[in-house]
Amino acid sequence: MANTNTILTKYERDDIDSWVAKFPEGRSQSALLAALRAVMHEDHYLSTEKMDAVAEYMGLSKIAVYEVASFYSMYELDEKAAAKNSISVCTNVSCMLNGSDEIVEHIEERLGIKMGESTPDKQFFFKVEEECLAACCGAPMMQLNHVYHENLTKEKVDALLESVKTNGSLHKKETS
Amino acid sequence: MSKTESKAAKPEVVENLVTFFINDKEHQAIPGSMLIEVADASDIHIPRFCYHKKLTVAANCRMCLVEVEKAPKPLPACATPVMEGMKVWTKSEKALTAQKDTMEFLLINHPLDCPICDQGGECELQDLSMAFGASTSSYQEIKRVVVDKDIGELVSTEMTRCIQCTRCVRFGDEISGMRELGATGRGDRMEIGTFVEKSLDSELSGNIIDICPVGALTAKPSRYHSRSWEMLQSEGIGSHDGVGSNVRLHTFKNKLVRVIAGENDAINECWISDRDRFSYEGVYAQDRVKSPMIKKNGIWKEVDWIVALEAVANELKDVNPNAVGVLASARATIEEQYLLQKVMRSLGVNNIDHRLRQTDFYDQENTDLFPNLGMKIADVESTDAVMLIGSNVRKEQPMINHRIRKAVLKGAKVFTVNPRELAFNYDVAEQCVVTPNEMVAQLALIAKASFTLSKKKVPAGLSDLLKSVRATKSAKTIAECLSDAKKPAVFVGNIAQQHPAYSTIRVLALVIAENTGATFGVVGGSGNTSGAWLAGLIPHRKEAGEAVDEIGKNAAEMLNHPKKVYVLLDVELESDSDNPQQALAALNQAECVIAISPYANKKMLANADVILPSAAYSETSGTYVNLEGTWQSFKAASKSYENARPAWKILRVLGNQLDVKGFDYVSSKDVRDELKDLCDKAEDGLHKFEATGIYVPHDSASSKSLQRIGEVAEYSCDSLVRRAQSLQASKPEQQLVQLNTKEIENLGLQTVFESNLNKVQVKQGGVMVEMSITANDMIPDGCALLMAGTKSSGLLGSAFGEIEVTL
Ligand code: SF4
Ligand code: FES
Ligand code: FES
């Protein structure tokens, strides 16, 4: 355990403990989603080392953690994806018809990276989003750190990115 | 578990059965049974991929869809419980269409590579696609490709072929108790694998080959050797542990090329250990002996059988029987063992033994007719408290460990007393880890607690040992837990049997069992250890436990006080004996060493004078008796290699040459029947023990030396498995010397880890050997794990002696 304690941060351990406590004894696996979210909060991606530590800390087999981590697209498994802020621009049908391609192009240009990459200063990760994000009525739209922003224009995108860069954190709520 | 209970209760509560109809025929079953189980029991075939009778229901493949009256859509038979009045059709148009459609979906991403697939011809997907599929597909797009995983030496993967039935995943979770494979990713990207690069570690890993319905997981060692329809299948018995797992031997052009699990619910259900599955590779080792050989003036010459057997007969005819030592394998068939001792005893030889790794024989006369489990193998899973003494049961007897695991899942508590901490695949209530020398003292604590608890009087022989012992809290808990249990068991294993104070350990185990009402049993030994006792391959009893006139020397004495002549049956003393140094010295000084053996390695060529090549595994008919006393006979599956002959035939001719009476057996069955009759009549004095004059081990390890823990490595227990290359490659760590971190620092050895070689010098009995070291914190202070039967151990001394480890 000494090992796990040094790999997982105090924040991660406390958060896992509080979630595990919410489930009946022996059902710690139910707290796994929350545990991985805690790691995402700290590292912005899930390293194998951290996943193994979570497995050991929670008494689960490693593969059980890998399965969950690889299933949900909210978890990033690649170190390259680790950045403070995550941008997902929907490119599914409704958004595409309403000009999502231009938004994507604009963001790529502004940040100087391609979709699927993160900026060298680790401020932004531009995620490849494949599914409809279920906000078609406000197309084109994007999700910035779990918050939806609809009816996008280039200017709006600029303002948003600027604001998270100066005062943004993963948990800060913003409205569009 | 209520299901198994209600099954057992079936005859009495007939009124509880539900009545329903499959294909318009009336059926009855216990409520809650799944349709597919009932159909299987009545020989109604429903196609399936994900369903497996020994695994939980996943219902993810949808191949088993059947039509059910009033159900709007077809229902999966594997997940549909039978209900009163239910009407089911398994072959109606609706059912068949659903199955056909499922098949089409399954084949969307499945490659059409059957001609180059090892599973071809025995593939469930291929079979069902022939029976239920269409010949064309509406899918025209590109199929997905999945990268293969390297999961070790035993199982090869072709993951594009996987249909994601998750049988292999559930197997890890539910049977092997180690989740190694999982389903990562999702949707059409879902893949079965280990996610990180990793070799499978479970001792049961090969079973996923049998249960994978397609060619995604196949046996690496036999891959591409032959097609399934070219092979012949025979029934066989696993030979490396006391379980006697039923196996199926596959031969191609008279050679054994593959082994898969057989089915026997009373013994191995439908699983086998990797050791029983892959050891066959050793059959065709480089050093198989082609013809009988005689050494003259240091030069080996191949000779005719007649010449060789005459030479052996002449050698044995006039020799003083006390100067002969007979050492035989516990893996030999009971027919071989019986004939060997019959020939030798007819010459007056009583120095006969198969217990080559045992060193303490003090109470051998008080033991059972043969070492046994004390219960049926299947009953192990209904025990509710188990104490394991000197037993790495998971590696020694994997299928018994599987039953203990089942018991634990039902709530049984397991306690262990072992010289190192072991990784179990279930929760163990307490592992008492002590050095080998402290094992007796540790057991004395528990024994004392059991006496206090049962209010029984300590017998005279134990009073010295237990007089000043104060039971600890943990000892009391163990004793209480055993006596509170309904079906407790106390088992001693291989480590106990090889321990220098085995008789004391055994007696303590027996009293603990008696005081707590537990069943005493032995969970150790090789494929025919029980048979060896029944056959009379021991110095103190003849066949079927009959008394001898004069007790002969045991294995340790025979090697300790060397004999003039040795007769060896499938034995390699450098790997099979407790003290290789001593054993080899004994052979070296002998005037004549006669070896009946399938193999002749360098040491055998150096030490033997006559080698009679015997048939190896699968090449002879015979019988093994397992730990529950079941006799299992088998036929030869393949032809003997070159001029090798089954050992029972060699011994029959030898008996005739020596004019021994009653050697006119026609088949191995005649031999078996003769012995079986005697054994059936034999009285079994169960667990007699006399606790007088207990041997107490010395513990005077000098400060520099460590106690060696020399348990036999998983894949080094006999001549066959030592030659099985894939198994050897899969467990390189068994060749290492292992110490805990603290001890490594104490001895100033940490610097070896700075270079990558990790080499240290290991010294025992005046011989220094260079070995690789690794840290293992599951080993107690003052000890070094250096397994027996391995390469380096062949140069060293006693398995539980003292050793030094230096830079
Ligand atoms: S590898 Fe075989 S057993 Fe495992 S999920 Fe795929 S098809 Fe099923
Ligand atoms: S298509 Fe973009 S939100 Fe639905
Ligand atoms: S066997 Fe029933 S769904 Fe797979």
List keywords for this structure.
heterodimer, A: alpha+beta, 8 helices, 4 strands, disordered C terminus, B: 807 residues, seven-stranded mixed beta sheet, six-stranded mixed beta barrel, 26 helices, 32 strands, binds iron/sulfur cluster, binds FE2/S2 (inorganic) cluster
Provide an overview of this structure:
The complex is a heterodimer of chains A (176) and B (807). Chain A is 46% helix and 9% strand. Chain A is built from 8 helices and 4 strands, in the order αααααβααβββα. Chain A has helices at residues 2-7, 10-20, 32-43, 48-58, 62-71, 93-97, 100-111, 154-167, and strands at 85-89, 124-127, 142-144, 147-149. In chain A, β3 (142-144) and β4 form a beta hairpin. In chain A, 34% of the residues are buried. Chain B has 807 residues and is α/β, with parallel strands linked by helices. Chain B is built from 26 helices and 32 strands. In chain B, β1 (18-22) and β2 (25-29) form a beta hairpin. Chain B has a 7-stranded mixed β-sheet. Chain B has a 6-stranded mixed beta barrel with strand order 27-31-28-30-29-32. Residues 1-11 of chain B have low confidence and may be disordered. The A-B interface holds A 48, 61-64, 66-67, 70-71 and B 178-186, 194-196. The structure holds iron/sulfur cluster and FE2/S2 (inorganic) cluster (FES) (2 copies). The site of one FE2/S2 (inorganic) cluster has 12 residues of chain B, from loops.
